[in-house]
Design brief:
Blueprint (H helix, E strand, L loop, with lengths): L1 E7 H16 L4 H12 L4 H15 L4 E8 L11 E3 L2 E7 L38 H7 L1
Antiparallel strand pairs: 1-2, 2-4, 3-4
């Protein structure tokens, strides 16, 4: 895998807005390409890669960090989400936001007092045989 170039998301977003504006004005594809080359000071292969990267960025707009342009050697597998245009692969680099879950509070914390400890209050009085005293009195 050989990286040819990359285009950052902020440049691609601005270029997409410019391209949309030029398209709404009725410009042809050649005029749009020439205007993009002039605006972003690109020419040749870099301009061709930029225009193809715009299409990839348009399809993957949410969370886009950059679009990598790369070529692969024989036998190498293309990365996931890669788009092949002519000889180059265009790979959108997506930013995945990490949103931690807030901790769940089960109480006030600390060692706790009372309720869950058990203690003598939960026990019923028993006689020597291990029977409850009230049950023994009921039998008699």
């Amino acid at each position: 895998m050989k990286s040819i170039t990359e285009f950052p998301a902020f440049t691609l977003r601005a270029a997409l807005a410019t391209k949309t504006q030029l398209t709404s004005e009725g410009k042809s594809a050649e005029e749009i390409t020439a205007a993009m080359g002039t605006t972003y000071k690109l020419e040749g292969d870099r301009l061709k890669h930029f225009m193809n990267a715009l299409d990839v960025a348009n399809n993957n707009a949410d969370g886009l960090k950059r679009v990598l342009v790369m070529s692969l050697a024989e036998g190498e597998a293309a990365p996931a989400k890669a788009t092949k245009v002519e000889e180059a692969y265009y790979v959108p680099d997506i930013f995945v936001a990490f949103v931690p879950k807030p901790p769940q509070q089960k109480g006030r914390g600390g060692r706790g007092k009372g309720g869950d400890r058990g203690g003598k209050g939960d026990r019923k009085p028993k006689n020597k045989d291990g029977d409850d005293i009230k049950k023994a009195e009921a039998k008699e």
